[in-house]
Structures are given as structure tokens and as C-alpha cells.
Amino acid sequence: LVEELGISIGEEVMLRFSLKESVYKAMHPILCEYVGFQEAEITPFPDGTAKVVLNLQSGSHERLGIVVRSTSWRRLEGGEFFLTTALVGVNSSSS
Q1: pLDDT tens for residues 59-79?
Q2: How far apart are CA 17 and CA 40, in angstroms?
Q3: What is the dihedral of CA 39, 44, 45, 47, to 10 degrees?
Q4: pLDDT of residue 94
Q5: Where are the alpha helices (DSSP H) in the chain?
Q6: Residues 15-29: pLDDT tens digits?
Q7: How open is the CA angle 77-50-27, to the nearest 5 degrees?
Q8: For a Cys-Cys bond, which of 29, 49, 53, 73 suits 41, CB 3.0-4.6 Å?
Q9: Mean residue pLDDT across the chain
Q10: Is 44 buried (19+), middle (13-18) or exposed (0-12) by CB count in 10 A?
Q11: Which residues pair with 40 in a beta bridge?
């Protein structure tokens, strides 16, 4: 994956961490509970998107119908930092 993304292993760790933080912060207003670092799996893709798999121990994401609608990332000019975003919503069938 590192080769596909064109980043180092250290940068991949930083990117995954930043994407998780974006998802957690987007979920917080809906969820309002602590989310552990191991409770989401993030896989970034070369096109600037990412796959997110939630596995909250409380099961709140399923009960509340929380859906990660989109995630994105890009390297900022200068190459030292990543910009990551996440859009989270609630499935209308779960409300």
C-alpha cells in the first residue's frame, strides 16, 4: 500500500491517524461517547479516498445508524502534512 500511495511507512501511519481523527470528530456530535483507536479500521487509497470500517465495542454505530458517507485526503503543498476530511451521517432507516 505504501508504494501505491507514494508515501513512506511513517507517513502512512500519520495519514491513517489523521483520517481516524477526522472520522471520530465527525461522529462525535451524533455519538457523544469515547471511541477507542482500535474501533475503526481505515484504508487510504491512491485516489484520495479511504475505506472506513467501524467496530465500536458499544455497538452504538449500528444502533444509531451512523454511516461514514465519505473520507478524503491529500498531501498539502510542501509535502510535510496531510489534509483529511470525513462526512458522517445517520441512516434514515435507523432513526
Answers
A1: 999 999 999 999 999 999 988
A2: 10
A3: 120
A4: 54
A5: 2-5, 9-31, 60-64
A6: 999 999 999 999 999
A7: 100
A8: 53
A9: 93
A10: buried
A11: 54
